[in-house]
Amino acid sequence: MNAAAVANEPTHAAGQADSSRQGPGTTKRGNRHVQRSESENARREQRTIELLTSARDDRLTAAERQRCRDLVVKINLPIADSLARRYRSRGENLEDLIQVARLGLVNAVLRYDPANGAFLSFAVPTISGEIKRHFRDHCWTVRPPRRLQELHSEVASAMVDLAQDKGSTPTAAEVADWIGADRADVLEAIRSNAFHSASLDTSDGLAAASGTLGATDAGFDEVDDSMERSDLMRRVDDACTRLSNDERRLLRLRFAQGRTQSSIADELNISQMSVSRRLQKITRRLRADVAGRAGTSPVARSMQRRVNVVPQQPARA
Questions:
Q1: Where is region (Disordered) located (predicted)?
Q2: Where are the alpha helices (DSSP H) in 27-145?
Q3: Does residue 132 sit in the same domain as residue 190?
């Protein structure tokens, strides 16, 4: 079977792999849509079984059997494409995922035995497995254990589902309960998320500052007294304990995780300017707190400059 030709077949609108969730407010029109989708799925399944049965009929020529398998792939392309779209928020190009999913569909058609029951019950795990294998083999910058890679896929899907249901970001405990895993394993899977690494030369998103994620602080070379530096860092840590949880979270995203202000704004659903102003306010408090306890040694002055990492934003007209 020519997988490349099948991969380029146009996708039709018939059926989806996922059934729509029906809530208490479902309309009659929505019910009709679900019934129509179920009817289409049933017809597609019946046609699939008929074609695959014919594809195993020795009375047909090899070309005729191949044509039956090609038709099975074509009428089930919406299933593969729908499964591919489940993974589109994980840093990989959707078109590439669709190609991988369609290859999984071809493999499912070649390996399926009609005596084993419904085609979809075999095809869906086969296609999903092909997509997960693609992520495992090609999309991890730092490759964690396979157990965490597979758990991360479940966690990511659960977070999307829970966020849609709750209207807010779910906690690790809620995700763990949703997928039936330990909370510690869920947290480890989230921390292992490393589909893409950021280049040290990546812009931090601030045109006025012209900074990059890997830029060296101007006062770093002045720090030559490790004991005094350690003492000062303890003072900074102590000052951070007096910040609110939201303020510490903002610092962690910006400095511990090296996130840009734009990406932080997207996660917190606020403007980039709000992120900048909040960081300025927090760092001013930290500078004042550290300066009042650390004196005026060269190391202290250097560390104070390192805390002062948020540039002033140009005033808007």
A1: 1-46
A2: 28-55, 62-75, 77-85, 94-111, 119-138
A3: no
